[in-house]
Specification:
alpha/beta; Rossmann fold; four-stranded parallel beta sheet; two-stranded antiparallel sheet; 23% strand; elongated
Length: 146
Amino acid sequence: MGGCEANERKILVGVDEGDESMYALSWCLKNVVVPQNSKDTLVLLYAQKPRPIYPIIDGATVSDEPKIRYILMPDVMETMDRYNNELAESRMEKAKRLCKEVHNLDVKVETRIESGDPRDVICQAAEKLSADVVVLGSHGYGLIKR
């Protein structure tokens, strides 16, 4: 036996709009990813927050209590979705560039864009992918702001 074989690892990195996620990715590339281990798979995950719903109060009812309705015009929803998709793609491209150009690592990189609350999406993805390592950036909030 000439040496020990490197194990295949799935490394999940959360990517968002903040610089903290890029710093976390950079840290991961320097400290977690093994350049000689071509079996490592780096999974970049962007959790796209659901579209907000804006309530309006409809006072044009016969009853004593006004009805609360939720409306968003189709063109407004389409614009919001397009913006969110472009933002997600832009951040993922930046993350992939960081992997290839800045750190010049030859590691398999997968990207995933999921919709939902980032806390839930990250946990579900880690479980579904059987991630060996999960790396997230920190905004530096104290216990009160979390």
